[in-house]
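Now for one record.
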Amino acid sequence: MKKPSIIKLSILGLVLIVLASCTKDMTKLNDNPKGPAVVPGESLVSQAQANLANYYTTPDVNTNIFELIMQYWAETTYPQETQYILVDRNIPRFWWQALYTTILKNLETAKQLIAAEDIKPVPGAQDPSTRANKVAITEICEVYTWALLVNTFGNIPYTEALDFTKATPKYDDQKTVFYALTDSLDAALAQLDPSGISFGTADLLYGGNVTSWIKFANTLKLRMGMQLADVDPAKAKTMVEAAAPGAFASNADNALFKFLAVPPNTNPIWTNLVQSNRDDFVPTNTLINQMNAGEDPRLSAYFTFGPNDGVYVGGITGNGNTYVNFSHVTDAIKVPTFPTLLLDFAEVQFFKAEAVERGFNIGDGDARSHYDSAVTASIVYWGGSATDAAAYLAKPGVSYTTATWQERIGVQQWIAYNLRGFDAWTSWRRLGWPKIVAPSSAISATPVRLTYPDNEQTLNETNWTAASAAIGGDLVTTKLFWMK
């Protein structure tokens, strides 16, 4: 029999030594030395805020088509979204998943992690006040996101939605969810301590400034209160009168999310229009004609001239429009760092004008003064001056006294909500202005809700069927509980 060589025996011995040493703790092979074993709650809040700003702002037709529904933008080559064809790209599914999985799940997990952190006896560290502020701010972000969901679909999974043991969560009644959110918002507001600290730079909206979050929460409460004005005036009055004094007092308070210059943290408008080198959108004649008629000073901030200098030209919603024949979004909007507004002072003033008209006691000014302040705030934010605003407000088609308050507020809020299609959609559904006419090529009336995701029909059929019946049918024309 041939004996093994010395080299082979040496290699065999080395292998046995290595294997013997590995058997001491084989589980360490699963460890990633460059990855954290535990994710801090603060990091999850940062990620959720970034995701919220991204999905709220993006013009990606697979996720967010509210700018198209509200006829700010028309499409060029592929006009199906402006024809309200929602299922080809599974738009409701992607919007639903984005809010649930990348925002709410992160926030809920962050809240649990922060609440469970040890209280350290170090000044300015995780003392009870700091922890309470962090939890409250996280809760406010959750309320904001839940409101997007319930205002999109109606009845939604809520109490069982983020529980991984509930593979088929039940749907909760939309009114019950909405009122629960107002309670959560009140509880978070009561928990905030402006003398304390919170997230610091991990808070991508206000840098941990608790006073700013108190104003944000009151502004959100004001907005949610006004949503109830037609269906529960008493509740709306209580909420609005409580929130109005503490809401944003100037543009300096605006909830401004600042994107970065380097992907993947750039403004998604730049990502979709510039980085992807696509010419998919032009402004609509619905908006351009309205702004042209009033010689709106924001025109040059919103759009470029069309093919002929000095003339703004909009495309036709529902049609395939030739890109070079129309005005376009300005270059200033298409930079990577262009910020997005999640809440602003202009809408506070519009809500206050409406509150006065509805007989709510907000204690500071008449409806016209708040309306004028709202329009001025929007024009100044977009680079105009108070003088520009005054001249604009003097025009017959803009002046507050020349039409019903619903028309004046509804139309001007729509113009001010440029690039904030979802909020414009909510305002239009409440006030009925501007008069959005579905294009002749549309497959339905202008949607007042999105249908439930298609995979809910297969993966959660029983609960989807019950929810659809409860709201009056899973249709884009089914009104939500707060709509007149």
